[in-house]
Amino acid sequence: MILRGILALAMPFAGPALAEGFLLQSPVDCILGQDCFIQQYMDRDPGQGAVDFTCAGLSYGGHKGTDFALPTRADMMAGVNVMAAAPGIVTGVRDGMDDRGYTPDRRAELAGRECGNGIVIRHDNGWETQYCHLKQDSVTVGSGQKVEAGTVLGQIGQSGNAAFPHVHLSVRDDKGTPVDPFDPDGVLDCEDPGDSTLWAEPPTYQPGGLLALGFANAIPDYDRIKNGEAAATALPADAPALVVFAYFFGPREGDILRLAITGPQGEVIADNITLTRDQAQAFRAIGKRRSGASWPAGDYTATAALVREGAMLDERTTQITLR
Fold it and tell me: Which parts of the sequence belong to the M23ase beta-sheet core domain (predicted)?
């Protein structure tokens, strides 16, 4: 059982800006902040740095779209639909690429196909949207097909140049220029962000958060965490150690991750971990070795909280029973 709470920072949008009648619906069939999240936004820094539309760091240099992501590959395999964000005509389709994602040794193999399995849709008044990294063999539309907002196009995958399961949504105007749907006027003002948006219902901005929390009997391998395979569903009372791990996105230097385990006899272990650098995703774990013949039988609770400048960004709780 996992309980969670999120402090999501909503930008002060007054309502959707009119872009010749062009408005976007959510391109993913999941609930942002619960079972999916936005990992990266369009890079608005014209120089060597990277900032998102809030002047924060959820982007990277030269990123030209918005990444709607899933916490783990297990979520990807379960299947989450990608949907047309607006009505239009499909003008480009690719499918059949595997979901192994990007590694440095695949650079040459993926050259020219970085988008992976993808779809391009042409909309009224020259607007265009592109959907990249769809799951292999999931594409459900063909070139020339008319679609409505909400038409299923495929599923979130990790094809092409993708380091994690997500769909990369690109928006382009009638000149082919990339447009940030969260701030389409093209003027980044950190003091007064304004209310310009292409979203019919603007997604709430979440500057970072927890993706997974689980128990294990040793510090798990990071790949197993990213695959959604690391959390134990049960542990024996004679487990050699009791470990809790937290997997999270958007950490910034100076953030604090609070981890704790409590059991039938009270606190087992607790720590406040200061994070030392900005990262897209990361994990941390704490644990304690068994000191006697067995752990006290019963229910154990793990908690995690991600804190930035004294404000809680996200928290989770999970439980396990030792017998």
Answer: 62-181
